Amino acid sequence: MVSEETMMFRFGTEENKVEKIIQEACGAMEEKGYNPINQLVGYLLSGDPAYVTSHKEARSKIRTLERDDILEELVHFYLEAHKDMR
């Protein structure tokens, strides 16, 4: 049975942790010569952690997060950055 009520997501509780891990993982990927956007998209779409380098423990750190939490943070960041365009 599907509820007719709107679900509410809470921002702020895990936001800083997610942001920090994304930044660390992307930095590690850049250091190894990978394109962090392509690698992160590959990971988010497939769930395969091999898209994220193990350099600086980026893979194990990113696996501590749920993929939907990463997506939520990315969408939130994008919408906040483009608030003026709406």
What are the SSEs and their pairings?
Elements: H1 15-31, H2 36-46, H3 58-62, H4 67-81
Helix pairs in contact: 1-2
Largest beta-sheet characterization: none
What quaternary form is this? single chain
Percent range for β-strand residues: under 5%
- Report the average pLDDT across residues: 89
What count of domains describes the coordinates?
A: 1
Number of helix segments? 4
What's the N-to-C terminus distance?
A: 34 Å
- Class by alpha and beta content: mainly alpha
State the total count of DSSP E strands: 0
Fraction of helical residues: 55-70%
Radius of gyration: 15 Å
What key attributes describe this structure?
86 residues; mainly alpha; globular; 56% helix
Could you explain the architecture of this structure?
The chain has 86 residues and is mostly helical. The chain has one domain. It is 56% helix and 0% strand. It has four helices and no strands. Helix 1 crosses helix 2. The protein is globular. The N and C termini lie far apart (34 Å). The mean pLDDT is 89.
Structure described in brief:
By secondary structure, the chain is mainly α.
